[in-house]
Every structure is written in structure tokens, then in C-alpha cells.
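Table S2 (text version). Query chain:
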Amino acid sequence: MKTIKFLTIAVIASLIFSCTDDDDATPSTPISPNEEELITTVRLNFMDSSGVTTSFEFNDLDGDGGNTPVIDTIALKKGMEYNLSTEFLDASDPNDVEDITAEIRDEDDEHLVCYTTPGVNGLTVSITDTDGTYEVGLLAVVLTADTASSINGTLRVSLKHQPGVKNGTCASGETDVEVDFPLQFN
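Corresponding C-alpha cell output:
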């Protein structure tokens, strides 16, 4: 009889204590401070010497898989200098767009935006912002030569997450997002 009473009390207690709010972290399910964010939009803002800004975007609002992403073709003028600012967004909920760029800026010692130009001649990208030790890459200067050309060329933008391994190169860490923007010169 004592065993039945004990089991009944144990079952009731487990039901009471198991019906708690699941939104809070518990020691068995901690929230990771470096949890990977969903990045649905990469926006490149090119400001020319006259102060005119032209933006180009990668959008994949449903994330990996599903619908094909929409990627703008970057059109730059030859013989120009541009100030580039790069933004990363989670626009999966159009009513609550999250600016991931702010988090990257806050954790700049753990992130690096890398720019490479496969198939492109006459384009240089020089990163201008740092974490105090290494480049970050949210801001850059882009120079296009008078002879700039692109035959099936791209501007590849890669966001690297490098907690504890950042060394100023794109070789370390994990890639959060990587986009090949088609590139043409006018």
C-alpha cells in the first residue's frame, strides 16, 4: 500500500513540475550565445564620390532549400571609387526584420566579411573597419580601374564566424553565409 501511495505522489509531482514554461532555458537546454542566425538578405551599399548610394541584394527569404534566391547583378562604373557598407538581415518575417549587422558589429572580434573577385579584372576591395586587431569587413573602399572587366565574374561575399580562431584570414572559422553577386562594369 505504501508503494502505491508513493508512486501516485511521484506521478502527480512529476506532472506538476513538468508543466513549466518551455521558453526559458534550463541547465539541460542552455541557450548558446553564438547560436547561428538565419541570414536571408545580404545588402551591399555602394556610395560613389558624389554621395549617391546604389544597393544590390541577395534575398532568400525562405532560407536554404525551397525557393531559388534572388541575386541582383552589381553594376559599377569604371574608374570609380566607392565606399561600401555591407548589411546582413533576417527578413524571414517581414513584420519583424532583424538586423544581424548590429550583432556582427558587437561581436566584431568573432566575425570577418571576406570579399573575393573570381573572374574579375580591375576591381580591388580594401576593408576599412577593424576590431582593434583584425579587419571586420562591414566597411570597405572599392576601386574600379578604367580597364575593369568581368566575363562571368562575381563579387563573392562571405561572412565568417571565427570565435576563438580569428587570425585575419578567411581560412578559419565557419561560413555563416556566402553569396556570389554577378558583376558588370559600365
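Notes on Table S2: Residues 1-34 have pLDDT under 50 and may be disordered. DSSP finds two helices and eleven strands in the chain.
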